[in-house]
Amino acid sequence: MAPEVHDHTGSEVDGASEYFKNNPDPKQLSKHESLAKEFIQYHLETDSERRIAIVTSGGTTVPLERQTVRFIDNFSAGTRGATSAEYFLQAGYAVIFLHRQFSLLPYSRHYSHSTNCFLDFMDESSDGRVLVAEEYQSKMRRVLKQYQHAKSNRLLLLLPYTTVTEYLFELRSLAQLMHPVGERALFYLAAAVSDFFIPLDRMEEHKIQSRGGGKGQGSSTKLVIDLDPIPKFLKTLVDNWAPKGSMVVSFKLETDPDLLVSKAQQSLHRYQHDLVIGNLLTTRKWEVVFITRHDEHWIRVPKARRSKSFSGVADMVGLADTKREPEQPDLEGG
Ligand code: PAZ
């Protein structure tokens, strides 16, 4: 396991420490730590200039039972994270992609979504061989080349998680393992992380029963769920886990347009990191706002460029529009 971080008094510093004490290490943590350590070491040894990005992506679950049948989830398909990871790779970064298991992945995302079934891209030749249909050849060739380049140069490490606890343990370990990378480390936190959880000592062991047959809360016909707040790990990440001088970018998702900018500013002020990228649930594919200490900067995709296959902020690069008031996007077209 990665070393604990202590302050000058010698005790573990962050408000999150109780959380880590009260929850067991995820099963796959030590395996993921070895993979990440090896990945980071490889890049430090082979290219002293190489930047390394930790990209987080997808939702986090909050189990309602220890033997989990039911859980609460956060909205996220993983489009933003997977798309952004491709752009970081293209820009020369090595990427550790900490993602929700079965969410979208860099490169395969172009063909694996339910609306983008890979079989729809296939055809049969006259001699019975299965081929990529003619009209998709050039795009698939481009995606395949990028994927093979990332793979053969060991530039992409995929690490899956499922629960919010797994996510937090994994992120803490990765941040600590990134110390030798120093200022060339980037944290790009696009995952949708639950703000609430059920502490282990209040969690049912077995499937909660809807009517009788169970114990305690589970025997009621009405299910009342009592959630605790997740510790504010972003502050701890910035202050204690991440290497000094690394860049930390977080995302803020809101549904109320009147809250987005103030909540993103509040987050930047509270956690003192580099950038908050704000987006609204309904318009996230067409516009985002970049909040830095000195600036509020909207990036929008012109209506003519919006399409069903458009996937997020990374595809918006170069399409900046700095007007203060967001233009209402035509979501029907998207
Ligand atoms: O994964 P996706 O493309 O469907 O959605 C991306 C997103 C909206 C989850 C992401 O851009 C984001 O805002 N993440 C942070 C969510 C939060 O405030 O917890």
Write a brief caption for the model.
This protein has 334 residues and is an alpha/beta fold. It is built from 8 helices and 14 strands. 28% of the residues lie in helices and 19% in strands.
Strand content: 15-25%
Percent of residues in helical segments? Answer: 25-40%
Say which CATH homologous superfamily of the domain at 29-245 is assigned: CoaB-like
Mean pLDDT: 88
Shape: globular
Q: H/E element string?
A: HHEEEHEHEEHEHEEEHEHEEE
The fold-level CATH name of the domain at 29-245 is: Rossmann fold
Spatial order of the strands forming the largest sheet? 7-4-1-8-11-12-13-14
DSSP helical segment count:
8
What does this structure look like?
The protein is α/β, with parallel strands linked by helices and 334 residues long. It has a domain at 29-245: Rossmann fold. The chain contains eight helices and 14 strands. The chain has helices spanning 17-22, 29-46, 79-90, 109-112, 137-152, 164-177, 233-241, 257-271, and strands at 52-57, 61-63, 71-73, 94-100, 122-124, 130-132, 156-161, 185-189, 196-197, 228-229, 247-254, 275-280, 287-291, 296-300. Strand 11, helix 8 (257-271) and strand 12 form a beta-alpha-beta unit. Helix 2 (29-46) packs parallel to helix 6 (164-177). The chain starts with 16 loop residues before the first helix and ends in a 34-residue tail after the last strand. 33% of the residues are buried. The model is unreliable at 1-12 and 316-334 (pLDDT under 50). The structure holds ligand PAZ. Ligand PAZ binds at residues 76-80, 190, 192-193, 251-253, 279, 284, 312.
